[in-house]
Amino acid sequence: MLQFGEINEESSIEGYFCSKKKVLFLYSYNIYDTNTLVMLDKHEDTLFEKGFLHYFSNLRDTSTRHLLFLFLVSHICVVTNASSSFDLNYIQLFKTLDSVRTKLQGSVAEVLKTVPGLPKDWLTLGRLCSPRVLFYFEQRPPVLDENLKSLQHLMEDQIYRLLRKCRVITNVCTNSLFAIPCNQEFVFFKPMQQDRFTFLLELLNDTFEIGNESPSDFHEFLSQHITLAQTEGFSDNVGRHVGPSIFVLPPARVWFDAAFKLFDFFTNSPANGLKGFQLLHSILDVEGQFSEARCLKVLPLALAAYQENLPSHYSSQYHENKKTQAKALLSSHGRGPAVQKFLGRLDTECDRFWRNGRRMCEFPSIIGNPCIQPVHRVHAEENGDSKLPVLPHMSGVRYVSACSCGRRQANREDPYDVEYANYGFYRLIEEECCGRLRHVTFPIFKPSSDHFEPANLKGASKSLHFARDVEKLITGTEDLSLGPDENEFPALSVDHLSQVAADDHEESQTSLGKGEATEAVDEDNIMEIAGTHELPAVSTWDFSTTEYLPCMVHVNSPPGILPRYSSWSLVCLGSSSLYSHNAGLSDQPGFLAGSGFLLPWDIPVRLQHNESSGLDGRRTHNLGYSGKGKRGKQGQHEFTVKIFIGVEYECPRGHRFMSSSPGRILKATGAGLVKDSAQLITQNDVPLYLPCPCPYNRGGKALIAQLMRLHVVTPKAAVHVTIDPKVRPAPPPCPEFVTGFTEPIQLSPSSYWILRFPYVYEDENQIYTHPKENARAAQHGYLLKGTCGVMELANE
């Protein structure tokens, strides 16, 4: 048994060789066979993916190539008909095979040249001979046995006239695909009903003389042609002036060598390669040709739909949306298997059009908005296409933000770097507003020369020295912080408190405004001050003048390295009288109605009057203040220190509001009465982000407001209000960001101070911005408790 191609393929050729009679039988399994066609259901997935027409077109192309191969390597070809009538579709198939054979004759000759020992006539003609075709009908016509022979002759005459009329056969058989014998029968009707397998089995048994003493009629019908081929050869030319026919009987070894090479040539040659195979594909794939023509007509319309109303440059998302619209147009008007091919072409053309100068930069800002500029470079020395323009990133999104002091609002561009977000914008707006106010200078990097560089923080461990100093500082000021324990404040010295003890009550009433009632001091909540507490000394660092910190300062930053700019701002608006508790923040724009008020925070203290000898033998007096000037028990004075505090939130649209307690928005009464106090604000962690109660929001989704300012109005007393903010802008392991000072910042008495927080936070690894989900905004980041504290005023 001989096999051409894989057994499980839809088109293959099987061969059976009889060495005794020197006859080789070849049988083609192809798509023209009904039994093979019904087996396509096992390729359901492929048919669903590629479509039946596309899949069937490729199978038909392969099957036709195998048929042409049989006509080139055979002497006799038996064509079967499934019914008792001649299938006219064979005429078109024969004409196709003849046209392709003529186109491929030169290529076939080149393949045959590689076969050693090949007869010259075979090389010249490109085939063994003009094969003789016999027609076998699988169904017997409904006639009597004695009339079957005459019907057979009538069928031969009819087939001959049809083939002659259609020019499938000619007088010179060398010029035709095949020949028909002139004086021999070439039509055979199957004598009884039997399946094809039984028919082939009987034919092989008759040929090999196995188990059957009386040969069948078809064996006798076929044997006469085989015998003539083995003895004299075929000479089927018709006419008076025709030359001899070429008929080659090669050795078996030469035939097998040539047959395998020709089979590989016909099977593996691409359809778009040689002209003969291109012609074959165009003739067979009529549906594909129509589909190609239809899609080729619709493709310009789809491209025009993509290019309609396009801006000068646009984003990848807009590009994909336009491609989807163009593909929908092509899919709705295109037909056939070529639609998928042209969808790919449309995708390529749209991508080429977009990339040819219409791409948007789309570099995300810190907030996440894409840059709307054309593709560009940010710096001239940047690596990349030198033809790209040098432009800054710009998302087109603008926010409304107030300056450091909060008295002026302005539009700010969507930031693309931390320096502009935390420093550059406020520096620009300060020139027109708060530039003349008193500012606290935060620790920043000061280079000693023009050659400096960012510090390498990869693998930098936490500074134990810095952590230890911070721990000492926190421990030392723990009693002064506004934590949950109010009964352990240190004593304030008599020398500092006695000078304004008499008029403390008057100043406190003035700051509260007229009509504010004086509250009685609860004996249980009075804090006793009995001695002087000294702050622990913090070691002085030697700051680097050649390396700077490329991010913001946090508790894990290496010691001795400072940032190039400060992300914080602390400004003094002026005297504490600028704030009226009845009127609220009248000069601060953008506050929501009823939210522009600070929260009062009363600190009742009790001062014990002691006399003792110091280390130098001098007497030390401890005396305290009382806003009410009330005399307590013998040797004691009771005082109330009143501070006004406000934590301000600001949303991207410029809406501002104060918080009455962690997670709640301050709402004053219509008369401006604030019922809340700052107790909960000072004793708890304050959320860094809250949903903004804007009067209107897009799609009903609330914007996220961020804690941006801390308002502190200090009392006119011999005490310092201190601030030491620590911000954790994201859940752990996010570090705690600090100002860079090694000690709490002391605010001057009887003043109005505003601490502005950074707009964004950055450590060595990432940038922290507001959360994306409004529902969990309040739990995302915090201003840690212990931000505000009180300490005695130092002696001058």
Automatic annotation (TrEMBL):
Sequence segments annotated as region (Disordered): 612-633
Keyword tags: Nonsense-mediated mRNA decay
Keyword Nucleotidyltransferase: no
Entry keyword annotation includes Metal-binding: no
Stored InterPro entries: SMG8-like
Any one of the GO BP annotations: nuclear-transcribed mRNA catabolic process, nonsense-mediated decay
A Pfam family it matches: Smg8_Smg9
Family per similarity comment: Belongs to the SMG8 family.
Biological role stated in the UniProt entry: Involved in nonsense-mediated decay (NMD) of mRNAs containing premature stop codons.
The protein's name in its UniProt record: Nonsense-mediated mRNA decay factor SMG8
Organism: Daphnia similis
Lineage: Eukaryota, Metazoa, Ecdysozoa, Arthropoda, Crustacea
